[in-house]
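Here is one such tokenized protein:
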Amino acid sequence: MPADLVLLSARLLDPGTGRLLPHTALAAERGRISFLGDDRDARALAGPGTTVVDLRGAVVTAGLTDGHLHPVSGAERTMGVDLSGCRDLESVRAALATAARELRPGAWLRGWGLDPNVFGTAPVATAALGPVLDGVPALIDLFDAHSALASERALELAGVDGPRAFAQGSEIVCDAGGRPTGLLLEDAACEVVEAVAPRPTEAEVRARAAEVLSAMAASGLTGGHAMDANGDSLAVYAALEAEDALPLRLRIAPWCRPEADDADLAELVRLQGTGGALWRVAGVKLFMDGTVDNGTAWLEAPDCHGQSDHAYWPDPRRYTRVIADLHRAGVPTATHAIGDAAVRHVLDSVEQAQAQTGGTGGAGGTCSTGVVRHRVEHIETVPDDTVRRFAPLGVAASMQPTHCCEFTRADHTDNWSRRLGEERAGRAFRCRDLWEAGARVVLGSDWPIAPYPPLQVMAGARHRRPADLSLPPHGPEQALTPLQALQGMTVCAAWAAGEEDRAGRLAVGHRADLTVLAEDPLRVPDGELAALPVLLTAVAGRVTHRAAEV
């Protein structure tokens, strides 16, 4: 049978070893790499329907996988005004004023990507934005997607005129007089206003998701670990695949909230393994805390404002029982845990679950190895003893280096560092320490929190500076080597998914998910990596992006 894809005159870079293979050609058949060898033999495998590409010395590596992203919910979230490039209040006000002038009467203004650092040392509140939102119903997501600013008109429409109690760690922030400031912390509080805001149609969300996924493929991504299945996102994936418009391989972890009961857990277990050819439900996403910037992380000691002193789950013991139940059912978990207390509790819970089952977990899991692999997401500040626990427990450390690069500063003048204080800010995003302690470090973007281009993520892991290189590195001793950064988006991502026997390497029998770059990413200088041209991407042997020059 003829091959589906043949790549010729290539340099084949195996991320498992960091070495170029002694071959110049690759062929793929039925979604798998079927041949590695020389050009002449590869040409013989081509038939009338084969896609044949002469790469003229370009570098082929295993497809880059984003270890943490939100394709559909992010597509919807980013349909508003993009504030991610605003570095001061003046530019935020200008962007919002322009958007407000273009609104039809009564329409809502939505925004996203607002960096709390623009407020300086002042409280994050709607009043700081000035009169640009007067009379306008507006809801603006802060960059972390764990908080939002609502205008006075939006609060009025939602019937919010004071504080409220929530079952999860959420808050409608109020001033000393009990009046809402506009700041909404965590999902339950944000959803009070979201409930009265207009939503885009299913067709609009699907079109935007298709646009985002296509751009992700052009950036070099062939896959991603999607950390939600909210709303109709599973139906969006199914529809896109039916339309042959799904250019990434996606592994999806639906959320389990603190209020989930036994029936909800049973449904999460039932969903495992469902999906299509390129997308499937594989795991469950949980939250142990919020964010440092909001004062909703869970720290061993409160932050410098006296906040971040409790868990997202009102009863952390309930979380421990849920982890045990999912582990017993063979379901891998990914838990958002930013603060040191949150990370410790997740590791404690996994350790207890493993002790109850002999370590591997129950039958029916989604890992081909038969071992249930759990993950911790973010891990922004942890002490040495916690770093050393990941490897013995087999827990993956899922890190987003661009969070450190774009939102914190080496001199600790940023909001995140000021809240933590010098000691804890000094142990920020310990990618290298976790790696050297034997943990599997998976790299991702957390898009739309930070930009998704994988070369930018890898560059951030290597230089620990903003994308424009305008500031000194934050914690340069935590930088990864070029090979480690590449492995974080290939080999380690495959391991965390329990798919190291079929993904993340260039080997016959492995998936033909491939990223083609103009030069060897291991030899490109750190500061130039993000701009390295992506010439071609392929998923299951099908070309999903091809640059004009190839």
About this structure: The two ends are 26 Å apart (CA to CA).
